[in-house]
Amino acid sequence: MTIEHNVFTEIETHLLEDKQPSIYLEDISKTPLFEKYPLVLLNNLKKTGQSPRHHPEGNVWNHTMLVVDQAAKVRDKSRDPRAFMWAALLHDIGKPDTTKIRKGRITSYDHDIAGADLTRKFLAGYLEEEGFVNKVAELVRWHMQILFVNNNLPFSDVRSMLRKTDVDEVALLGFCDRMGRLHADRSEEEENIKRFLAKVKANQA
Any idea where the HD/PDEase domain is (predicted)? Predict the structure, then answer.
């Protein structure tokens, strides 16, 4: 087993067993390992800012650590905790490549699409499990649909999402994503998820 695969296994163990995986992730992120590919893709999150209005916690890494800890609280509700927790860690991996300042605002359009591709590349650096890699990548690809569907935005694509992934897993990941920020309102976010699932089911009918 290579050193790289040992690191992957160690990260995965903490994702699946720790109450707060962020504690381990913060520690390992300060080592030279995070300067090498593919972990550098995570290290880049530290250099990527976000809208202070939507993300008062700061950069994408700070947000991701909050999301991972939220995900750890509900991973027993997932049908595939392994895929779910990796998706929580990698869900915004596309932001460094897509973040730009437009009209004075920090945006990251299409980071979900870019993130799915980077997720495949990241996991392929450690695994030869095509089915698993695809499952994680599709969760990353569709994690923004809660916002898009609830706000009737043109980027919503319920039919493709239903064909490609498990909408309940998307909802669970999306809840953690929305809770993974400072001052998040739990009851409001729970309602957002209920509304999303209701709209999806209506689309199925």
Answer: 56-191
